[in-house]
Amino acid sequence: MRALVVDPQAPAALRLAEVPEPTPAPAQAVIEVHHASINYGELNGARSGQMPPGAVLGWDASGVVVEAAADGSGPPPGARVVAFASAAWAQLATVDANATAVVPTAVDLADAAALPVAGVTALQALRAGGPVLGKRVLVTGASGGVGRYAVQLAALAGATVVASVGSAARGEGLAELGADQVVVGLTGIDQPVDVILDNVGGPQLVEAWGLLAAGGSLQSIGWTAGEPATFPPYATVGAPKSLTSFTVTGNRGADLATLVTLVAEGSLSAEVCWRGSWDRVAEAAQALFGRRLTGKAVLDVG
Ligand SMILES: NC(=O)c1ccc[n+]([C@@H]2O[C@H](COP(=O)([O-])OP(=O)(O)OC[C@H]3O[C@@H](n4cnc5c(N)ncnc54)[C@H](OP(=O)(O)O)[C@@H]3O)[C@@H](O)[C@H]2O)c1
Question: What residues of the chain score a pLDDT lower than 50?
Answer without folding.
Answer: none
